[in-house]
Write a structure and sequence with these properties.
- It is a single chain.
- The chain has 703 residues and is an alpha+beta fold.
- It is built from 26 helices and 16 strands.
- The strands form 5 sheets. A 5-stranded mixed sheet has the order 1-5-3-4-2. The chain has a 3-stranded antiparallel sheet with strand order 6-8-7, with no helix packed on it. The chain has a 3-stranded mixed sheet with strand order 9-11-12.
- A hairpin with a 7-residue loop joins strand 14 and strand 15.
- Helix 5 packs across helix 6, helix 18 packs across helix 21 and helix 23 packs across helix 24.
- The longest helix has 23 residues.
- It starts with a strand and ends in a 28-residue tail after the last helix.
- The C terminus is likely disordered.
Length: 703
């Protein structure tokens, strides 16, 4: 039967099947304060006499108790509507399960319409948010979804798109833009919320973008810029007029570059709205400047610091050391590390004689600050002398070493051939997994690749094929990468019903009967599976078509692959690791590990580059964005593949005895070269730091 019971006479019960702590009690308390308890609690008599245990309705009870504890209601006088049930423990648990199991929450679309209708009569968003125990941002988010372009909201209400997809479309208030993106992507089952958000964001700029931080919201709005609030993520608001923001930033940077150029007497300073110089130095020549040399006393002191730090670490590793003694040693270690950093961080020396012939770049950092690059460049080759020593020509920025960037580790040392092969395969897997989501691009690439190459004869009556590439050998015990998992899941999800018939014509007819989405999935998987990790065994260059595909899809390898001790850090030298730490965190970060053993540095690097280390935000961001050049698609060595002219007559004949699509030849002919030695002078550095590379004595050579 239904009746009322005083709040103070209720208590929680172990017979309630809901055992996890109820969520969002504050929202329930706000609702009870505004409307009271609108649904009966299920209770059963308990001891002492007059008390009742709650079988279902814990959240309503806790919301009311929160109001009682705040003094809003009196627990001894507040009437709670209840329905009293009785029975043994099994019966009561079944009642609790039935009440909780049969409840169905409102859909997101229903919530949106309800809040929109409610606010038509009460337009105070803050009051509505308080009444329902929600934040203003939550209510605004539901209103944004309610105002989605009509086809998108209908798709949400009918369950054809998910809540996450709806939020992606709602990342802009511009319904025309929403509908354009929906018409382009809405019918594809391979598009995810991130792709929708990126498609919309291409016409906007985050308020956290370095350009936006530099310009400032006040100056941007004063110039006529528009700002949209971002309600469905923590990325900040979006600026709807990125061209205006970029124009304002260019004006600021050009003025600052002019001021610094006149102040320092340089020939030029080029502003660049980026923290990277990729592509900016292609036609320039780096001026090789040395840091101010250490004096004999400073050099001796630097060596002494390294020796002392190593001794301190060995002493501090003793688990039996007293806490006070350890603290004293640690303080000395920190002091020495700071001194070492100060000694070895002298800026390069730029003589007055060449200042008027060189220039540099004004960079825009991730935090919106302007920084003057300390590396100098000349527009023509410049001969630079050190005073008493010989005069040497400046090195071209686009030919900084004998090896392309993909083959070089941080610090300038070549990667081993085996490590480079593994990184190339994993980079290819990332591109392959990315192309799964863009069947149209896969089709374009497949058609171009097939019509632009010499063709041979195969038994299926067509020259088109997507045979598996001859990949370098990969370790058998290497864990599956995120890209490899995505590829495997895509293959498992394929509709393979058409493969059952035994005769090829029947299989062809069955394949034709598949819908377009199923065919598109097969196309994307086949193209993804055909991608080559390397053009051939000896190559260290990135295929330029892979670079173009990656740029079209905005592929970011760092989001797919992270370096670990097993797949990278244990495979390079200690010097390379210190150079890498300097690259992402400067000399300060590298100095922390100058006295550490390589294994310890490798373990620390794995945590740092996985984002698990406690460090400065800028260093963490740089580490999470870093991948070796062998994994990048935007390195300068991604040159064109050498093209070989094919006579028309050759198109009708076989390319080789086996009709090889690559022009014949044994793909394994050069295997022996990979395991042999290179010429003298190309060997790996000695010492225990490079022990991990002993098995890979062959280094990647320049093409």
């Amino acid at each position: 039967m239904t009746q009322t019971v005083k709040l103070a006479k209720l208590k929680r019960s172990e017979k309630n099947v809901r055992t996890s702590p109820p969520r969002n009690i504050e929202a329930m308390a706000a609702s009870i304060e505004a409307r009271g308890i609108m649904q009966n609690l299920l209770v059963t008599p308990s001891k002492p006499r007059g008390m009742f245990e709650i079988i279902a309705g814990d959240r309503r009870y806790l919301g009311a108790m929160m109001l009682a504890e705040a003094g809003t209601i009196d627990a001894t006088g507040y009437d709670v509507p209840v329905k009293i049930v009785s029975g043994d423990e099994a019966d009561l648990r079944e009642v609790s399960l039935t009440e909780n199991f049969q409840r169905e929450p409102m859909t997101v679309a229903e919530e949106c319409v309800a809040f929109q209708h409610f606010l038509k009569t009460d337009g105070d968003i803050d009051a509505v948010a308080k009444r329902f125990g929600q934040t203003r941002r939550f209510i605004e988010g539901r209103l944004r979804l309610a105002n989605l372009a009509e086809p998108i909201f209908t798709a949400l209400a009918e369950g054809r798109i998910s809540y996450e997809m709806a939020k992606a479309y709602g990342s802009t208030e511009d319904t025309a833009k929403q509908q354009r993106v929906f018409e382009a992507y809405g019918q594809s089952s391979y598009v995810n919320a991130d792709q929708i958000r990126r498609a919309i964001a291409n016409d906007t700029m985050k308020s956290s973008d370095p350009v936006a931080i530099l310009v400032g919201a006040q100056a941007y709005v004063a110039a006529g810029g528009r700002i949209e609030r971002e309600l469905f993520s923590e990325d900040g608001d979006r600026w709807s007029d990125p061209e205006l923001a970029q124009s304002l930033a260019a004006t600021i940077m050009e003025a600052e570059a002019k001021r610094l150029g006149e102040e320092q007497g340089l020939a030029w300073i080029r502003p660049i709205a980026s923290s990277s110089l990729y592509g900016a130095t292609a036609d320039l020549h780096r001026v090789p400047l040395q840091p101010a040399p250490l004096t004999e006393e400073e050099a001796a002191r630097s060596d002494a610091i390294v020796e002392r730090c190593e001794a301190l670490e060995e002493t501090m590793a003793d688990e039996g050391i007293e806490d006070d003694a350890y603290a004293t040693l640690e303080e000395e270690y920190d002091t020495l590390r700071s001194e070492y950093e100060a000694l070895n961080s002298k800026p390069p020396v730029l003589s007055d004689e060449i200042k008027g012939q060189v220039g540099t770049f004004l960079m825009l950092g991730r935090d919106g600050t302007l920084t003057l690059e300390t590396t100098y460049y000349s527009e023509t080759p410049l001969r630079v002398g050190d005073g008493d020593g010989p005069v040497v020509p400046g090195r071209s920025a686009k030919d900084a070493g004998s090896l392309p960037p993909e083959a070089v580790a941080p610090g300038g040392k070549p990667l081993s051939a085996r490590l480079h092969d593994e990184l190339a395969v994993q980079r290819r897997d990332i591109l392959a997994a990315s192309i799964l989501g863009d069947p149209a691009l896969a089709l374009d690439y497949m058609l171009f690749a097939t019509v632009d190459q010499a063709r041979g004869y195969v038994t299926y009556g067509t020259t088109i094929g997507a045979r598996r590439p001859d990949d370098p050998q990969m370790p058998k015990d290497q864990p599956a990468t995120q890209a490899q998992i995505a590829l495997a899941e895509a293959r498992e999800a394929l509709d393979s019903s058409w493969t059952e018939p035994a005769r090829v014509v029947e299989r062809f007819d069955a394949f034709r009967a598949l819908d377009d989405d199923a065919k598109a999935a097969w196309l994307a998987v086949m193209v993804a599976g055909s991608l080559q990790a390397k053009p051939d065994y000896s190559s260290v260059k990135t295929n330029p078509l892979h670079v173009r595909l990656a740029s079209i899809m905005d592929v970011r390898p760092a989001q797919w692959w992270r370096p670990t001790a097993a797949n990278f850090f244990d495979r390079v030298s200690k010097g390379t690791l210190l150079a890498l730490l300097t690259e992402v965190g400067g000399p300060v970060l590298a100095a922390r590990y100058v006295g550490s053993k390589k294994g310890e540095i490798s373990t620390s690097c794995e945590k740092l580059f996985a984002g698990e280390a406690i460090t400065e935000a800028e260093i963490k961001e740089a580490a999470l964005a870093w991948v070796p050049d062998a994994m990048r698609f935007d390195v300068s060595a991604a040159g064109d593949i050498e093209e070989v002219e094919v006579e028309d007559d050759d198109l009708d004949g076989d390319l080789g005895d086996e009709g090889d699509l690559d022009g014949g030849g044994d793909p394994d002919a050069d295997d022996a070269d990979l395991d042999g030695d290179l010429d003298d002078g190309a060997g790996i550095e000695g010492g225990e730091d490079d022990a991990a590379n002993d098995e890979d004595a062959a280094l990647v050579a320049a093409e």
